[in-house]
Amino acid sequence: MAGCLFCRIIAGEIPASKVYEDDTLVAFNDINPQAPMHVLIVPRVHVASLNDLGPEHDALAGAMIRRAAAIAGDRGFAARGFRTVFNCNAEAGQTVFHVHLHVLGGRPMGWPPG
Ligand code: AMP
Ligand code: ZN
Fold this sequence. Notes:
Number of strands: 5
Shape: globular
Helix content: 10-25%
Structural class: alpha+beta
Bound molecules: adenosine monophosphate, zinc ion
Low-confidence stretches: none
Largest sheet: 5 strands, antiparallel
Radius of gyration: 14 Å
């Protein structure tokens, strides 16, 4: 989608520190990491937020979640623990309106989240 930051990263128009990609997903390091591991997993298809996911995206959503666990596991966080977050719309702090899964690890995570 024109003007979407993450579509531009996926297209290679804006550089990013990619850690994984396949036919449906791209994962890259967050530019402003909130933990020693802070990866964003984004679908190649433009979907603005969780509110816009339909049943046709069920496999995609599952792939995002499973990829989060795989990336965390590769970094040694499977047993220790890690945090996954989808921010949805303003009150949750979503700033980029291309759905993305935050994967954070490497420090204790507080609850409830801020
Ligand atoms: P959210 O606030 O949930 O929409 O998350 C958006 C995330 O994108 C934030 O954690 C930002 O630090 C991150 N971000 C913004 N621009 C870039 C970029 N060019 N490369 C990587 N991450 C970015
Ligand atoms: Zn997009």
